């Protein structure tokens, strides 16, 4: 058809050229004629007519020639077109024959976008509803929704961008349709063809092949991603493929090089052993040692024979072997540890066979070791123990045994208590193992049960005992809550039983108690003692005053378990007595102070007149103012002696007052012991003679001297000799002894008088304490008190030993070294 059109266009152009040439010639003749019109001559008009005639003749001739030529060409063209039409009709018939040879529909879209549908539209039929041309492009009406949507998108891409496609879709009736789209000659063509027979099988095989290709690609990617070396060998045993892990382990660089060079991961001996195992049909992996990436590793190699050769995989179990060895060592250590436990342990597998038991288990049930080593069943062991009467007595042993063995099917551990015939109590824990089986733990809790029973009894006794106490007692726990309170505590603070049941916090208890004892400080201290967070807990003692006048001594003591014991003691009576005694003591102190002030004042007031009396008596005795008769001289002597005795008493009182006031100071000097004793003896000589008392001096010649106040030492000896003479009977003797004992000087005055009973000795050094003991000796009771005060001022001590009828020994001990130091300091 295209060939026919081209000659027609060329013929047209040639005719136009000839016609143009003819017209050009005629026009030239006309022009010549017009030019001739301007020339002179008579026949100008004739010449023009001739020229026109000639031109028309030439034009007609040429036009006839052209007509004849074109007619021949059109005849040939018609013949050619007739042949082409016949050929096209044959092609059309063949196309329709081909199109109708199988169920298919062809849809074409021209440039105007209108679809032309040709073929068997019956493929769109749905049940009783026949197919139609309008349903062909309504894919959702006869295709499954997913395929209809995908086909719509594919047709849209074909018509818009000319993208070709081929896909398989399915009708609602389950038939398979092949959809193929492509652009042909500027038109879009869609062919829908129902697949049947071999073609459908071919499409299914193609889909299977594509799926297998994708699966193989995914499998190859997966094998390259796993860390285990994987390989494939041909029938000749040569390496045909390997994954990335194999290449890295064999250090081959890449897969192509590994296959080309035949890089081997396993040694020859390992490969031969694997070949022999395959020949024998042995199952399971082969454990070998190989060099992997330059390191010696342990591998589990599995090779499987295929039609094309063998495939293999190597799993690195070096870490597993190490962990298995560590696990075995740990299990051995656990076994040794379990053997040392006092708790009996027995393990049974999923078949209820004994797989482990420790020494405590054998000792607990006293079973034959050979019997246990034979791995008996759990039920057999229970039967053996029942026959030996070692299990708890049961009315229905079969049911009880089934209940015990039911622990193998339990999901959680079960705890039971067995009371054995021999009086023991066992806590039995049956713990299911994750991999099947059971682990028994037998704990002998007989002692614990006994101790718990005793503990409960003791706690009950303690609670009852505390409840019977009259003193309030309360115990607060580590959380600050009231764990126990006896009846006295609840009665004193008026706490209700309902409040005690909820175990109130210390703050709630304080809130109730402060209504009776509003003082804030004691309760703050009690709260800190109960709830305070300190490293070292200490006890607390305070006093609580109630509004009704009751006084309670409160004590908070920390207990070993972290609790706090709070006790109260009613001290109202003792506080009242203490208050009365304090007031009385203050009154006595005031009385004593007044007495001392009175004595001190009176002593000084008496000393001056007494001195005058003694002076005037001495004048009268010297008879300087006139002669005295014998009676007057006797009276004057009595006045002199009485005044001297009274002066000694007054001086003693002044000395005691000075000692009490702390104003007496010793005049330390070096005192000769013999001289001092002789002076004291001279002062008592007349009384010795008058009482017919013998004086014995036991003073070493080399006694030497010591540093002291000589006047006070003489006063000490004088008072001791006066007492000794006063309490001695005529004819007895008084002994004065002196000696040095180490760094001390000892002075002793010993008499043979009546002695003193213990109750008198207990008060002998008190002031104004005088006892005649049946003698004529009288005194104001200041002598021994003065002696003790002077001895203690010297840093010494005084001891007295006496018994009724055995006399009295008074021992005064003076330090010698300290005296020297005091003298050196004074100088």
UniProtKB/TrEMBL annotation:
Enzyme class: transferase
Reaction equation(s) it catalyzes: ATP + protein L-histidine = ADP + protein N-phospho-L-histidine
Residue ranges of the TM segments: 45-68
Claim: Lyase is one of the keywords in the record: no
Domain Histidine kinase as annotated: residue spans: 601-818
InterPro entries in the record: HATPase_C_sf, HATPase_dom, His_kinase_dom, HisK_dim/P_dom, HisK_dim/P_sf, PAS, PAS-like_dom_sf, Sensor_HK_Regulatory
EC number: 2.7.13.3
A Gene Ontology molecular function term of the record: phosphorelay sensor kinase activity
Keywords annotated in UniProt: Kinase, Membrane, Phosphoprotein, Transferase, Transmembrane, Transmembrane helix, Two-component regulatory system
Taxonomy, superkingdom: Bacteria
Gene3D superfamilies: 1.10.287.130, Histidine kinase-like ATPase, C-terminal domain (3.30.565.10), PAS domain (3.30.450.20)
Pfam families registered for this protein in UniProt: HATPase_c (PF02518), HisKA (PF00512), PAS_7 (PF12860)
Database matches in SMART domains: HATPase_c, HisKA, PAS
Keyword DNA-binding attached: no
Protein name per Swiss-Prot or TrEMBL: histidine kinase
Native species: Methylobacterium nonmethylotrophicum
